[in-house]
Amino acid sequence: MKKKKNILAGIIVILMAALFILAAFVVINKKNGDKLPESTTVSPVDQVLLRDLKRNYPPTPKEVLRFYSDITTCFYREDLTEEQLSKLALKAREVYDSELCADKTEEEYLEDLKKDILTFQAMDLVVSGYSLSSSTDVEFFSADGFDFARMYANYRLRQGTEYAYINEVFLLRKDENGHWKIYGWDVVEEESDSEQVMENE
């Protein structure tokens, strides 16, 4: 009789343990089901807007220009809401030198930017890619007590099935926090090499 009771008690313990494991499995699966799928992609606009420049500022002139060029492709390639455009414009100004920012208020900058974007849209133009100077081609120099860097960016414009290239030279200045900021830029002679490898297409 005692043996039967022990066997019955053992079966009850095993059943309770199995129920506990099953309940734990259900709870864990429910929690995992609330998470975003691992394959969820972040749009180029969100990638730019999610970067906190106060904590994660680009460390080199090339990385600053790469970030700015990512913003530029968003301006002239993506369909933006009014809110996204305003936020992107503020991000762009975060990598501008203080003297460049002083040339226009935020409102003036945004208005001019909107006009430029509308001009591109009216001409069916988009910025479809860009390439930057290699790190070894960045020219560093000092002037008036400041450190400067000069480098090039080549932007590819697409109009329908036609492509054109615009080459620009950028000047960056290091600020009091050691951050490289865009001091200004200018268009230089267009490159006609259609075989140049483009980034971020």
Task: Describe, in plain words, how this protein is organized in 3D.
- With 201 residues, the chain is α+β, with helices and mostly antiparallel strands.
- It is 45% helix and 24% strand.
- The protein is built from 6 helices and 5 strands.
- The chain has helices spanning 2-33, 44-50, 61-77, 82-94, 98-102, 106-122, and strands spanning 125-132, 139-143, 146-159, 162-174, 180-188.
- Strands 1, 2, 3, 4 and 5 form a 5-stranded antiparallel β-sheet that branches.
- Strand 2 and strand 3 (146-159) form a beta hairpin.
- The longest helix has 32 residues, at 2-33.
- The chain is globular, with a radius of gyration of 28 Å.
- Mean pLDDT is 82; it is low at 8-13, 15-36 and 191-201.
Topology:
Elements: H1 2-33, H2 44-50, H3 61-77, H4 82-94, H5 98-102, H6 106-122, E1 125-132, E2 139-143, E3 146-159, E4 162-174, E5 180-188
Antiparallel strand pairs: 1-3, 2-3, 3-4, 4-5
Helix pairs in contact: 3-4, 4-6
